[in-house]
Amino acid sequence: MGGNSVSLTATLAAMEPLRHTPAGLPVVDFILAHASQQTEAGNPRQVEFEMPAKATGEIATRVAKMRQGCRVEAQGFLNRKHRMSRQMVLHVTNMEMI
Question: How far apart are CA 32 and CA 91, in angstroms?
Fold first, then answer.
């Protein structure tokens, strides 16, 4: 299998309340909003999107303390929202305010 690694500078646009799995693991769902200018085929391109994201465990507790609107650097991997979904979600493994 190939790599699946994402690093994204974004704004914490929205966040659901921290919850816990039946096993007691903290989980938080949130939205990251990204805006930048990238180069594609030698030409500048405006890039803007919102990405659904999820954090689990200790990182979820840290993310839940962050304020909506703060700038962050997030790292993680992409996966489907759930087994039967086609929607992509960024599973965040590290996120720091910048």
Answer: 12
